[in-house]
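Q: What residues go here?
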């Protein structure tokens, strides 16, 4: 196909409310030798979009400082980490056989080339992302899913939410037959945790509320406790022998309340702070019971390969709550911030 010289995109030029999202015509990004150019069919929203736009990540020593995921954002920045689309061109050093292939892009920027490399940046934050008709990505990060039965919207829902969830599960060493507690279970990462933990053969106790409880149960949770009531008492009733692994995207008071729920040698994995970043922790609950608190930021290349294997087999099926055209990105982010939905919200460039 003929590659245009300009494209539609949504970008931010400063931190702020949804009004800072601007729908503009911009040059198509230049293609480097080791990169592919992807025609974006769907791009999913994440909390990282909100927090990057707001500058809500803080900095070491100053938690209230305006900052992106890993430091100051280089404006203007096209948002959007989660891209599904088709390769329309490749750089001189990339495999020309990728042209025309359906791909999911691993949005992580890693600190090395190995399978256990750590993410130190993210598409849509440290480099331009998929709120656009076209996006470039390293060829090594464009995973061929041409034969997957999943829709473009479902594929776009995988990278950050399911990648983060699988990273938590892998770092928490969740095994078949163990009991796992999932917080924030109706959100993108939470619902992914429920589905992936159930697929691994774990017994899943999830925390949700209100009308979302049934949807979380339908996603695979064995038990769902209502966060509007006494969570600890409900979890003790649902899992009287204790929890092997806590998979937590809420943090805040749940960490101090939840650690006593762990069995001997239990693991509490944290990948978010929706309930607050300040934690009052009784360390005796750790060393007296050989428990561990594990931080988990996204995934490694090995984790993402495992996720793409699941995508090719359609072994997990993301729930898509709503889709918006690209020029309604601000409305889509407002909908995401309201947290009334279950599943993922996507944009269609």
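A:
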């Amino acid at each position: 196909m003929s590659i245009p010289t300009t494209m539609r995109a949504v970008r931010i030029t400063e931190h702020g409310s949804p009004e800072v999202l601007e729908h503009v015509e911009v040059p198509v990004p230049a293609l480097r030798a080791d990169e592919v150019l992807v025609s974006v069919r769907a791009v999913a929203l994440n909390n990282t979009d909100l927090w990057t736009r707001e500058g809500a990540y803080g900095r070491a020593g100053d938690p209230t400082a305006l900052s992106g995921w890993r430091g100051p954002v280089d404006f203007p920045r096209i948002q959007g980490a989660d891209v599904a689309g088709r390769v329309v061109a490749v750089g001189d050093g990339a495999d020309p056989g990728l042209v025309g292939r359906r791909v999911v892009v691993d949005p992580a920027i890693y600190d090395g080339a190995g399978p256990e490399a750590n993410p130190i940046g993210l598409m849509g934050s440290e480099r331009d992302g998929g709120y656009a008709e076209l996006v470039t990505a390293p060829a090594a990060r464009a995973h061929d899913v041409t034969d997957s039965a999943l829709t473009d919207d479902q594929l776009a829902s995988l990278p950050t939410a399911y990648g983060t969830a699988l990273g938590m599960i892998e770092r928490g060493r969740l095994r078949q037959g163990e009991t796992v507690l999932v917080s924030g279970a109706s959100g993108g990462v939470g619902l992914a945790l429920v589905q992936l933990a159930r697929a691994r053969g774990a017994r899943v106790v999830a925390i949700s509320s209100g009308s979302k409880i049934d949807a979380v149960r339908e996603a695979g949770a064995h038990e769902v406790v209502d966060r509007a009531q006494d969570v600890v008492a409900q979890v003790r009733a649902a899992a009287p022998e204790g929890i092997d692994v806590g998979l937590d995207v809420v943090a805040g008071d749940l960490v101090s309340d939840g650690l006593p729920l762990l069995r001997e040698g239990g693991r509490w994995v944290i990948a978010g702070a929706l309930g607050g970043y300040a934690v009052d922790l009784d360390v005796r609950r750790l060393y007296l019971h050989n428990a561990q608190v594990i931080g988990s930021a996204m995934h490694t290349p090995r984790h993402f390969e495992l996720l793409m294997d699941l995508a090719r087999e359609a072994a997990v099926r993301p729930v898509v709550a709503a889709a918006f055209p690209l020029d309604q990105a601000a409305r889509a982010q407002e909908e995401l911030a309201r947290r009334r939905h279950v599943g993922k919200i996507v944009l269609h460039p």
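A: Context that may help when evaluating the design: The first strand starts at residue 6 and ends at 12. The mean pLDDT is 96.
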